[in-house]
Amino acid sequence: MEYVNELDTISARAAQKDAALKVHRLTFMEATMMVVGSTIGSGVLGLAFASRNAGWPVLLTWLVVAGFFSIISMLYVAEATLRTTKPLQLSGLAEKYVGKIGSWLIFFSVGATSFCSLIAYTSGCGRILSEFFGISLEMASCLFALGATSVVWLGLKATGVAEKYLSSGMTAMLILLVGASLFSARVPVADILYAHWTYAVPVFNIAVFCYAVQYIVPEISRGFTHDPGKIVPSILAGAGISFVILALVPLAVFLMLPVDEISEVASLSWGRALGSPVFFVIVNAFAFCAMLTSFWAIAESFLTNMIDRLGFKSETDIRTRAGCLAFIVIPPVLLAYSGLVGFVNAIFSAGTFGGIIMSILPVFMLRSARKHGDHAPCWRCGWIAHPIMQFLVVVLFASAGIYAIFSLCGWLPAAW
């Protein structure tokens, strides 16, 4: 990776009076926590359940591999945005650099990831609210969706500020919970170091889902038109914090619970295992915050992708914003309490059909942006954009997609 002299700045985007997506400044902490909030959602709660057959060492291996190559893919998107004058979302960048087919593929992948994720978040948070307040899952899901959507309605800046405070609090809760789990572990460390590689590849797809947040990069770029040099550091900082959380939460769950006691939404069983009612509340508060922050980031990004891809005039138009948010939020709420979609299966599907497309297409977007971009960027990918690295990105994620299709067709054993 390398920096070069800036011939033009992204601040030119603000001068694009006809742009549908408007510029809203973010701070470094807000942008970093948007990456954390996007990454730490339902995936972190499903990791322990999804990897219980494979084992924590297998999960850790895939978190490193998937994280490394997913971050490379994110940085490809970052360079493409830095080469583009007009503020565009991921689907808009794809249309500019790989054509309409690529744009619709990206739009599908963002939509698939968003819907599957929002189903999981609504279902997971609905279960937590239902458990705490003794209300029906249907009512709990609706209350969660209504409250979460109100922040997205206020726009990118409000989402960034909310992400900063809630993600910071979530990180503090995690430190407390992991410390308590290590101190009062019920399962010996030796008993959680098993590795069954037969179940490894499906766990990789879950890891891909956790890191499949390429859609947040254009949002961060839009928030740093005044200081584009902070785009890449904020992505790397957010990814680093996310890796630590993704590794520690399943470890703490494995230390507290035998394999057969781990539930799909791990917070419920993890909280009970810690014993104290206070820890039970904190665990579920952490889980709730994790899903809420991810809900905000994904809904905001899908909203701007819809406006960009479908050619709406402006994201500030009230009717456009209301219609798009209704389309984004209402179907996942209906599916979440219908019982038709399983929590972990929703994550698996999102990782398969969304994350893999979003991880591969940035390779071709970067190649085209280097030939047809609007101006030279203030930052370039350097060695991570070497043809061998691009080839590895494509092969790795394409192979995972092929495996997932075979598994969904019933030709391979289930992982969980």
From TrEMBL:
Gene3D superfamilies in the cross-refs: Amino acid/polyamine transporter I
Principal place of residence: membrane
GO CC terms, sorted: plasma membrane
Transmembrane segments: 31-50, 56-77, 97-120, 132-156, 168-187, 193-213, 234-257, 277-299, 320-340, 346-366, 387-414
Keyword Flavoprotein among record annotations: no
Biological-process GO terms, alphabetical: amino acid transmembrane transport
InterPro entries: Amino_acid_transport_2
Membrane topology of the entry: Multi-pass membrane protein
Compartments where found: Cell inner membrane
Membrane is among the record's keywords: yes
Keyword terms, alphabetized: Cell inner membrane, Cell membrane, Membrane, Transmembrane, Transmembrane helix, Transport
Protein name, entry field: Amino acid transporter transmembrane
Species of the source: Megasphaera elsdenii DSM 20460
